[in-house]
């Protein structure tokens, strides 16, 4: 029995040594594992920050591109808004009845008016159709409202001043009379 006892003692000692070895390994590995975990967390935070910055930069580039496209698309807007009153005056002048003395002047004015309208059309300016159309607050400015049985409700009856659109943007709404 003493051999068995000795074997058991040796096994117990080996187990104790193994436990102590595990404890020593844990105390050595624990700080290293903590450092590894901290470094992994820092790396993950840096990767997230990088991805957010990349997304912000992509958004910035897209905004700049869209702003540049809009600037190019509507580059003529200020010029057009300055020219529209002159175009209105041409149209009023062309409504004057012509006699023999003013016929040649009116023909010259018609040619200038036509060239002006063509130049504006090349830039994407078009007149907004109003008379007979349904009232649209984005394209029409109602300055009068009347009740007439001869027209549908909410229909533009008369146009006092033409409205204009530059490409897809209304730069001046039509001033109109609307049937209630």
TrEMBL record:
Keyword hit for Cytoplasm: yes
SUPFAM superfamilies referenced in this protein's UniProt entry, alphabetically: Coiled-coil domain of nucleotide exchange factor GrpE, Head domain of nucleotide exchange factor GrpE
Keywords tagged on the record: Chaperone, Coiled coil, Cytoplasm, Stress response
Pfam families per record: GrpE
Gene3D superfamilies, sorted: 3.90.20.20, Head domain of nucleotide exchange factor GrpE
Coiled-coil residue spans: 7-63
PANTHER family hit by this protein: GRPE PROTEIN (PTHR21237), GRPE PROTEIN HOMOLOG, MITOCHONDRIAL (PTHR21237:SF23)
Subunit-level organization: Homodimer.
Protein name in UniProt: Protein GrpE
Gene name in the database record: grpE
